[in-house]
Structure formats: C-alpha cells, structure tokens
Q: What sequence folds into this?
C-alpha cells in the first residue's frame, strides 16, 4: 500500500512526523506537505500562479516533498503526477487542535482529505485535541505509562497509533464513494482512551472577537482573535465523544445538499 501523508501546519510540524513514522507500519509512505502553516485555510486550489515542489528532509532524516501551495494543492499535485507511483490512501495530520463541528469547513487538515475523496482516493484527517497553552511536540518512543500531556506539551503517539488502526480498518472494509473520515483523538494515554465512537458533527461554539489596531501611519488594521472555542457536549457528536474520552470518527460526505430544505423549496412559486 502506498500512503500519502500531508498536513496544514507545514512539512516540519511534529504531528506530521509522528503520523509519517506510524504509517510506515502499513506500507510505503510519501510526504508532500506545505512549506508553511496553512491552518484555517479551508479548501484552496491555486490557479493563478505556478506551484513549486522541492525536496526536504524530516527531523528523522527521511526524505519528503514540500510545496508552496495549500494542503489541498499538495494532495492534488501528488495525485496528478508529481508522485509517480499510484497512491492508495491519503492521511492528513496530525493537527495539534481538534477539528470538530463547523471547524471542518475551515480546516486545511480536513480539506486535504476532502481533495483525496474528490479524486476517488480514500482520505482520512487526523487531529489531536488540545487545551489552551499546550505546545506541540513529537515523542518518538511511546510513553504508555505517562500522561499524554506533560509540562503543557502534546504527545502525538496515541493519535498516531489510532490513525494506523483506523486507516488499516478503513482500507480493509472500504468507504462509500465521496466519503472521508474525520478523526479526532483526546489528549490521553493509550490506556486512558476509552475506545472509538462513530459520531456526527457537533456544534462548535466560537468566541471570536475583533481587535482593531493602528499602524505607525495611523491607518487601521485588524486581528480576528478571541477565546479558545468550545462546543456543545452532546452524546453522539464529535465534541461529546472527545469530552467523554473517546476517539471520534466522523464520516463526512462531499454532497452538501440540504435535502429537507430542497424539498421545501420545490414547493415555492419561483
């Protein structure tokens, strides 16, 4: 099996390294990821400028490819021929924050997996839940006897191992056409994680705020900031599963049609 690993945090992000190392247990791994952070970039396709691809090395010395395009560009480049060998699976992550609820429309991690599904290739997005103030890190040797968050740092090990388990099962069983998996893992040890739940999208609560400032010439500029988002803790949802200590696996589909609304709209006299 040939696996493409990408992300939206940049090719040198620790979550990508952990994911690439773990996925080698399933087959050949090729990395093609952005050369910078594209968090909250959404589904981007670059059409008005050329894209560059160059070779780099990951922190463990293994080769990788990087592009100045978005995460979805990286997947498209690989599937369209930059990577010559046929790709069987695209896994995106590991994102250092959960991608739940409406996050999936913003997330470069999720839309990279979506680009795979558009091309008819199985796509899986993997994110690790975190708390404000935590710093991303990679743990090469598993720490099964210690908390997944130590000294405010994230351990990607449990999420990477969960990704392998879920990817292996998905490849064996298959997914419906146009469906991708959005996986979110709680920041717990392997022993503390209570299992896997198949969930629906929950309700994300954003607490965005506009910060207006002035540059040295007195002209206004803006930051969109605010407090860390929360969510509605409801059973059966991605947020609810994380809160209860479960890994959330949410099947997402490319068809966004609101069927109920369509039937109502058909009754209107246009």
A:
């Amino acid at each position: 099996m040939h696996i493409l690993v990408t992300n939206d945090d940049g090719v040198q992000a620790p979550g990508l390294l952990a994911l690439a190392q773990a996925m080698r247990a399933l087959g050949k791994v090729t990395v093609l990821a952005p050369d910078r952070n594209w968090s909250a970039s959404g589904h981007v396709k670059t059409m008005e400028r050329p894209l560059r691809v160059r070779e780099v090395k990951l922190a463990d010395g293994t080769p990788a490819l990087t592009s100045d395009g978005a995460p979805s560009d990286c997947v498209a480049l690989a599937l369209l021929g930059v990577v010559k060998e046929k790709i069987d699976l695209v896994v995106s992550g590991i994102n250092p924050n959960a991608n739940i609820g409406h996050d999936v429309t913003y997330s470069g991690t999720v839309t990279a997996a979506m680009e795979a599904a558009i091309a008819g290739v199985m796509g899986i997005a993997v994110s690790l839940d975190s708390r404000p103030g935590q710093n991303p890190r990679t743990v090469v040797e598993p720490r099964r006897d210690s908390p997944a968050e130590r000294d405010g740092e994230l351990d990607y090990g449990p999420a990477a191992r969960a990704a392998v388990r879920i990817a292996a099962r998905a490849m064996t069983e298959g997914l419906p056409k146009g469906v991708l998996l959005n996986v979110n893992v709680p920041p717990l040890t392997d022993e503390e994680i209570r299992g896997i739940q198949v969930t629906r999208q929950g309700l994300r609560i954003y607490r965005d705020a506009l910060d207006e400032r002035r540059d040295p010439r007195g002209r206004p500029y803006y930051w969109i900031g605010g407090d860390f988002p929360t969510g509605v803790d409801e059973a059966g949802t991605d947020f609810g599963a994380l809160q209860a200590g479960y890994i959330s696996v949410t099947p997402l589909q490319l068809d966004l049609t609101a069927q109920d609304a369509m039937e109502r709209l058909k009754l209107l006299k246009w």
